[in-house]
Design goal:
four-stranded antiparallel β-sheet, elongated, 43% strand, Rieske Iron-sulfur Protein
């Protein structure tokens, strides 16, 4: 699969994230201190939009709904859904699942994401 250009490097400040649609798929692009990273745009818990969440500790994304946290670089679960109290009952059914990640490259000032 080929890389798909999504934005210019200077369009997304460090510490910010933005959702892009690439071949019909919503991808969340992050600009961290050490570069650009991309994950699926919805939380793996109840599919809430991670673009409405926030970047915490410089390298994690926190879901706005149940506060699950994922490592932006690897997609791995850091903290599973823990809010509001009682959500753990749903967690018994919705087991921990990492985010899908995508390769990102920057070429000639353009940020590109590879699907597949």
């Amino acid at each position: 699969m080929a890389f798909h250009e999504v934005c210019r490097e200077d369009e997304l400040d460090v510490g910010k994230m933005k959702v892009f649609k690439v071949e019909g798929e919503k991808i969340l692009l992050y600009h961290l201190e050490d570069g650009f990273f991309a994950t699926q745009a919805s939380c793996t818990h109840t599919f809430a939009p991670l673009g409405r969440g926030k970047i915490v500790d410089g390298c994690k994304v926190q879901c706005p709904l149940h506060r699950a946290r994922f490592d932006i670089r690897t997609g791995e679960v850091i903290d599973w859904a823990n809010f509001p109290p009682g959500i753990q009952l749903l967690n018994a059914v919705r087991g921990e699942k990492a985010l899908k990640t995508y390769p990102v490259s920057v070429k000639s000032g353009k940020v590109r994401i590879k699907l597949g």
